[in-house]
Every structure is written in C-alpha cells, then in structure tokens.
Amino acid sequence: TAHLVRTEVVALGNQIDWQRSYYLARGGIEAAVYSIVRSAVVQPAAPGVPSNPSDFLPGKRWLQYEFPGGSCTVEVVPENAKLDINQSPPEQLAALFVSLGLPADESLELAAAIVEWRSPRTSDVGSVLDALYAGLPQPYLARHAPLKQLEELLPVRGMSRSLFFGRMERSPQGRWQKWPPLGDLLTTQATGLAVNPNYASFEVLRVLPGWDDAMAAAVIAARTASPFRSLEDLQAAAPQLSAVAGL
After folding, report:
1. Pick from 74, 108, 119, 240: CA 20 to 30 A from residue 233's CA?
2. Model-level pTM?
3. Is there a contact between 116 and 127 (Cβ–Cβ < 8 Å)?
C-alpha cells in the first residue's frame, strides 16, 4: 500500500510539473507576440541603455519572461530566416541536404524530385516520377503546384521522416550530432529569395550563393555580439561578402 501511495504521489507531481511547463510555454509565446507587436509603437531604449530582456528589438533572437510559476525563454525565428521551398534552385536544395548528412547523389535526386513536385505540368504525359507515385501500393498524384504547407514534402520520392523531422546521430568520433528539422530551414512563405542574416541558421547561410562555412560562422559570431542593422555591418563581419553577386 505504501508503495502504491508513493507511486501515486510521484505521478501526481509529474502531472503538475507537466501542466506548469505547458502553461509557462504557452504564456511565453503569447508574451513574445505581444512584445513583437508592441515594438512597432514603442520607442527603443537610447543607445547604451540596456533593454529589458522581455523587450523585442530588431535582430534580437531570445526573449526572457518571468512568471509567478517560473521563467520562460522564447526563441524568435522569422520565416524570412529560411529558404523558400517554392523558389530555391535545385543546386541550393541539394547543398542543404548534403549539409544535413544526406549523400551527394541522393541529395541531387531529392532536390530534382522536389522541383518537379512543385512545378506545374508541362504536358498531359506524366513523368517517370508521376508513374512511380501512381504505381505505389497506395498511389497518389504529385502536387505539381507551389507548396502551401511544408508537410507536403513528405510524399516526395527520396524524402525520409528522419530528414524532415530531424534526428540525432553518433559521429565516427563518438560525438552526437544533431540534425535540425526542415521546418527550421525551409518555408512556404514567399521571401523573394532574400534571407534575414540576423536569424538564419548556419545551414541556411552556408548554402546562399557565394557563401561558405567560414563566412556563415563569421556572421553568426558577429550577430551574437550585436545584430546587423545595415549592409555595411554585415560586410564588416565577413569582408568576403563584398564580392558576392546579388547580395
């Protein structure tokens, strides 16, 4: 009986902690939305004056909130910090998949399949991939239109759940490697092929035209100290960017 009582007490405590965590997270999201909306009408603090951790400023990535039941930290990631899945060229998509650990040949095939999936039909004759989808045990039609939700990538030939949702893998050196989900890197929102350097992840910056690992790392290190407010700030962090066409 005593064992059952202890078990019930622990289970109840876990349930209380879960409920508290849920409402802290929900409250943090709602408070972050308010902070972002409020930033459009409230003047920012004067230069040199530290801002409140809960105040949103352009380029600020983390917002912190204190509630009676605990604290909450919210990460801000705008959609323009991601690649537009409906516009990104196949070479860029393939490079992104390679950076996520997919072999080069599989990355090229997946990128080509995505481009065909999002592209309108050019004739009434179906492609090889159309025939493949139609011949599956549970057949379906390719979209052949711009994606409205990123989950529409899941039926594309070559797309795996581990690539889409992210995964943890142990490297040959014994270290654990975390691969981010595609939802952190791709968007269906039109961005005009522009990427926000204050928020874009290393994987996204790395595959921009003319960029490399060193430039992406330099930009991330610089924005940690201070958000970019101009093109000059960005080029000061990575001088090689001055030679990148169409920046």
Report:
1. 74
2. 0.81
3. yes
**Lowest-pLDDT range of 83-87, 160-164, 169-173:** 169-173
**Which is more confidently placed, 140 or 13?**
140
CA distance 238 to 219: 6
The DSSP line for the chain is: -HHHHHHHHHHHHHHHHHHHHHHHHHHHHHHHHHHHHHTTTSPPPPTTSPPPTT---TT--EEEEEETTEEEEEE---GGGSEETTT--HHHHHHHHHHTT--HHHHHHHHHHHHHHHSPPSSSS--HHHHHHHTSSS------S--SSGGGGTTSTT--HHHHH-EEEE-TTS-EEEEPPGGGTEESS--TT---TTT--HHHHHTSTT--HHHHHHHHHHHHHS---SHHHHHHH-GGGGG-TT-
114-124 residue pLDDT tens: 999 999 988 88
Q: Which of 138, 136, 135, 130 is nearest to 113 (CA)?
A: 130
Measured distance CA(41)–CA(53) in Å, rounded: 18
Quick count: other Cβ atoms within 10 Å of Cβ 80?
Answer: 17
- Both tokens of 97, joined, read 């998949």
pLDDT one-digit tens code per residue, 227-246 = 888 888 888 888 888 766 55
Q: Is 200 exposed, middle or buried (0-12, 13-18, 19+ CB in 10 A)?
A: buried
Diameter over CA atoms, the chain: 74
| Contact assessment for residue 32 and residue 76, using Cβ atoms and an 8 Å cutoff | yes
